Amino acid sequence: MADPISDPIGFSLEIMTSPLFFKVAVFPGLTSIGIIIALFIWLDRKITARVQLRVGPLYASPLGGVLQSFADLIKFAFKELFIPRNADKFFFVAAPVLALIGGAGLVGLIPFTPEWQISNLELGLPAFLAFVTLSPMLILLAGWSANSKYPFIGGLRSLFQQTAYEIPLWLSAIGVVMMAGTMNLIGIVQAQSKPWVIFLGLSIPGWYIIPQALGALLFFITATAEMERIPFDLPEAEPEIIMGWQAEYPGFLFMSAAGASFVRLYAFSALFSVLYLGGWMGPAPVPALLWTAIKIIIVSSLIILLRATFPRVRIDQLLRAGWTYLLGLAFLNIVITYLLVVGPRI
Amino acid sequence: MPDIAFFGFAAVTVLGAILALESRDLVYGAVSLGVSFLGVASLFFLLDAAYIGVFQIAVYIGAVVILILFTVMLVGPAKGEGPTEFRRTALFIGILVAMMLGVGGALASPSAFSTNQPCTPECDLAQFSQSLLVTYSVQLAVLSLVFAAAVIGALTLAKSERGTA
Amino acid sequence: MEPLASFFGLSATLLAIGIYGLATKRSAIRILFSVELIYNAANLNIVAFARLRNPPLVTGQVLVIFSIALAAMEAAVGLAIILLAFRLNSDIDLRKMTRLKG
After folding, report:
1. Mean pLDDT of the residues in chain A
2. Residues with Cβ < 8 Å from C34, sequence gap 6 or more?
């Protein structure tokens, strides 16, 4: 390593060219997250439009209006930053920005391939889920700081919903940990590499979505609720409480708040493909990174399809389902997994 | 490098703790408390107890701070904040200074406790979970019973007077 | 690696801040803050002492897990009591809660 004091240019060049810097700054770090968010916004609009027999974004580029969401993001950045007079200014600005940063931090824990990962923690899975638990605090603060009725209702709804669904989320992820015997995300993917059955030369990959079908379903539902997407978007229900906790947000801050939800969509789709769909592994000889990308796109498209096809649930239905059915099914999943793991040994 | 990390996290922890008690608005106090907990969690990471750090984040910030924030917002920010009594303040600032002096003494003599070696591969999760789930399994079960009792108690307390008060 | 003594020092500082809050604050929520700070000081101390040995003593870490869980319960029950007291007295100043009857 160059000496930082005697050779500042060489030192900064060395940092700039190190692989870690590239990972944090370009892929899978900040630049790629920004671009992928814009692409996800486009995907969201396009799929919803197709389901509703519309065409969606069309004109902004030859390729189905891909550039429309980039244009919208630029437009948001130039809007006036209007902060309500009675708002608590510090949290009003800090909460959505911190939510965006926290969501981007989640992506840093995901292994896209063994090489393309920013930080490989031994406790990758619980660390991811623990950082997810920070977000209801930020959303509650965002709703409270606007000092207005609808945002506060939205913040409280988000608090109830996210804390209720965190518990089944953790419990359904335990099944994967029990089968893989590790909490490291790379270790979890490698544990799925052994084919399940080989039948007539066709191998069914040993992805955990087969033995963990119930767990995967529960994880999918609770993750959708944690992301606050339709049918679980009560905190920002547009017809009821006019965008909930985001109601008062102006240009750039609204972009952060909306972007945070799409970053979480990205991070959770990636986590789902790592936990249940074998991450970067696949039956056909395609580059590993492409497999991850395909799986993420499939999972996120499914979540977006939910938005276009299901009506919103009521808050009492949501909480009752979370605390009773989902919790009970998560425990059932743990019992089933226990039998699957321990059963063959007896 | 861990020196800088330690002093950074320690500063965050102590400043968060002081702000939690002295900030004018209780909401800011609750958030500072969360920041302080986050600092303690980072210190657990430095002490090679990563699992406890993750648990600390999930339980303290994911549950306790959110409960406190919720209560603060229900109760209203300005309640119960009478002026602090000066004599007691002076007394306890005295105690604080005395303890800080003791801390300074401890820092001045690093030989009092051995500097620990870097963690060997035995610092792994398997040993920890073995201890938690096998050696202390009965205690864990009792803890869960206490947990159930606490949840039921909290629910009953918070619910009981709804009609009358 | 930082000498463990500084962890003990930090823990003592947190404890001192917690005791200061317990003694001078009147709002029940601030007092709950102080109790949580004292819990954290104790947990930090236990983990640091468990780290004295190499490999670390896992019993200490298990104890801290129990302690964190108990602190969470204590916060839940404490906040429920504060809510109830607020409903009865419409104040959470502990010095004003002088009635024994609810």
Report:
1. 81
2. B21, C17, C18, C19, C20, C21, C22, C25
Q: Are residues B68 and B8 in the same domain?
A: yes
Q: Do chains B and C touch (3 or more CB pairs under 8 A)?
A: yes
Contact status of C97 with chain B (Cβ, < 8 Å): no
Mean of pLDDT values over A225-253: 74
DSSP for A186-252 reads HHHHHHT-S-SEEETTEEE---TTTTTHHHHHHHHHHHHHHHT-TTS-GGG-HHHHTTGGGTT--HH
Its domain, for residue B66, covers 1-80
Which two structure tokens, joined as six digits, stand for C48? 């640091």
Which chain A positions have a beta carbon within 8 Å of B61's beta carbon?
133-134, 137
Check residue B107 and give its pLDDT: 59
Among B45, B80, B115, give the residue marking a domain's end.
B80
Type and span of the H or E element at B44: helix B26-46
Do residue A140 and residue B70 have CB atoms under 8 angstroms apart? yes
Domain that holds residue C32: 4-96
Q: Which of B49, B64, B80 is the last residue of a domain?
A: B80
Which chain C residue shows the shortest CA-CA distance from B42?
Answer: C44
Q: How far is C98 from chain B (nearest CA, A)?
A: 14
Alpha carbon of B55: minimum distance to chain A alpha carbons (Å): 8
Query: Are both B60 and B128 inside the same structural domain?
Result: no
CATH of residue B51's domain is 1.20.120.1200
**pLDDT by residue (tens digit) across B16-62?**
888 888 877 888 888 899 999 999 998 888 887 788 888 888 888 88
- Evaluate whether residue B145 is within a structural domain: yes
Task: Give domain status of residue B56, yes or no.
Answer: yes
Q: Do A127 and B54 lie within an 8 Å CB cutoff?
A: yes
Tens digit of pLDDT for each residue in A187-209? 888 887 777 666 666 666 777 87
